Amino acid sequence: MYFPYLRGRQYELIALRELLENNKLGSAVIPIIEPVRLSPTLVSTLEGFKDKRQKCSIVMNPGVGSFLEEYSDFSKSNLATRLDRLIDESENFYYVSLISKDYSLEENFKSIADIGKQITVCKKPDDLQGYNKNYREQETAYNFISEIGRLKREVQGNKVKISDNFVKLARNTDYSDKDDEFFSDDHKYFIEDEYKGFSDYSIVGEEYSESGFAPYAVAIHIVYFDSDENLRIHHFVSETNQDPTNPAGKFKEALEKLITFVNEGLVERTLAINEFEKLYKTGSYPGLGTVKKLSIMHHIELVSKYLDRISGDSE
Hints:
The protein is built from 10 helices and 11 strands. With 315 residues, it is an alpha/beta fold. It has one domain. Helix 6 (149-154) links the parallel strand 6 (142-145) and strand 7. Helix 1 packs parallel to helix 2 (40-52) and helix 2 packs parallel to helix 4 (78-89). The longest helix has 24 residues, at 288-311. It is globular, with a radius of gyration of 20 Å.
């Protein structure tokens, strides 16, 4: 099982929604959404998963963003009511608790009775205190752990490995110095390593920032399989990076490099790659949010196709 962990920004939610609408999420993919805002896009995306009976997970005590405050302030609003109804009625959702040393169930914005629909996330040894107090004797659906021996020894049940595979650099221009690197082989070895699945933060990374700024360079981050079916990531970076002006021109420069890579047969075709090709042919600049959206879509669809292929579910 693959659990892509997304922070619920607008472009991440739209990425999931477009994959869902185009039937590009296989049964072995269960997205995790950590909501950062109580937004119409969040609720409509979750409604789409419910309507399609596609499995999805929502973090009940998000550690970043303003969701908890907004949910509390607008608990009687239409959005909060729709979200509550989804949680009460959906049979295909899982509910995630981010465990800390002092975690308590009261941190979650809504109580979930069905322990078999719950997921825990422990990333530090001290998190075991919160886990042992609240979940150790519970038969949760999955328990996410980082690659720390003590966590693997002490956390019970169906364990899922969670990793941050994206090496985030300070500036987009810095990716030019190492434009191709190893990304992950978790998809190959998670069963051998005695996990029920694997999780990552896609091409965004775990670090979260509220603020944005105009970058000097445009970088398109695309994962692909090498000859040994390891996932690598290639960073396609613009050339004219002296100042933050002309983002459309910078995008064109980066996109030309991506299209050359695609035409050389190095990247498996996905819905997102087809969209990148359309943008190249029309000369359109969709904005940096859409560029991230397409890169996420490509990654998730690629892993979904791989898991379908090894399980015999591919078309």
